[in-house]
Design a protein that fits this description.
Chain lengths: 151, 84
């Protein structure tokens, strides 16, 4: 399992290729890439800035990833999360899971993404022509997280 | 001295001089510290009151604000998280 928090832009396709290279033990690879939108709810976004707590953020994401992968048949998992200033179109997060069969790989990625939305120590701020605003999880995100807990 | 870390929107209103503070004599617990910070910086206190604030001591989640703090600790104040 690899968890990386980085202030550098990353290429999700290259990350996925390197992660899956030579893994003939797995029959399924599922990945999710979250990217920075150019607009949210009709409001333009020039830049997304993600604040983190060095050390603690990595530790907590690793804990969430570990807990999620343990619940399923998931021999390997990759999480890459950007922090700092991000431009529209750039990747924010990548979660990729290997598994023997597809259902476990899909579930690990879906549930871990639900956890990251509400439980990863990261704080998003969008800046646009109208000013800046801090993003907080929506009620929908908390509801999904509760569902993830129940499994 | 105690190191204070303010994340997300709290970091925006917290002045640099709060990054490292000498513990006042009447501050023994996390609750005392939070109240003391709010008295020093009413804007920060209001921001913390307006949302759910979690506190982390030496990079470990504090589940109870009655937890004692000591010289040399690092205490972080976290607003609701928004990753993914």
């Amino acid at each position: 399992m690899e968890v990386r928090v980085t202030s550098d832009a990353f290429d999700p396709q290259a990350e996925i290729a390197a992660f899956a290279a030579g893994r003939d033990d797995a029959g399924a690879l599922v990945s999710f890439v979250g990217t920075c939108r150019a607009a949210t709810g009709g409001v333009a976004v020039d830049e997304l800035r993600i604040d983190h707590y060095p050390g603690f953020t990595e530790k907590e994401i690793a804990r969430l990833a570990e807990e999620t992968s343990r619940r399923f048949d998931c021999p390997d998992l990759l999480v890459v999360h950007r922090v700092g200033a991000i431009r529209p179109g750039e990747a924010i997060v990548l979660v990729a899971a290997l598994s023997t069969h597809r259902s476990d790989a899909f579930e690990v990625v879906r549930i871990l993404m639900d956890y990251l939305k509400t439980d990863a120590p990261l704080w998003k701020k969008e800046t646009g022509p109208g000013g800046a605003r801090w993003i907080e999880p929506r009620a929908e995100d908390y509801a999904r997280r509760m569902e993830a807990e129940k499994g | 001295m105690v190191r204070l870390v303010f994340l997300g929107k709290f970091g925006e209103v917290a002045p640099a001089e709060l990054a490292e503070v000498a513990l006042p004599g009447d501050v023994h617990t996390l609750q005392d510290l939070k109240d003391w910070v709010a008295r020093q910086q009413p804007l920060l206190g209001a921001a913390m009151d307006a949302t759910r604030t979690r506190m982390i001591v030496n990079q470990c989640v504090a589940h109870d604000l009655s937890q004692a703090i000591a010289d040399g600790d690092e205490v972080a104040f976290l607003p609701p998280m928004s990753g993914g």
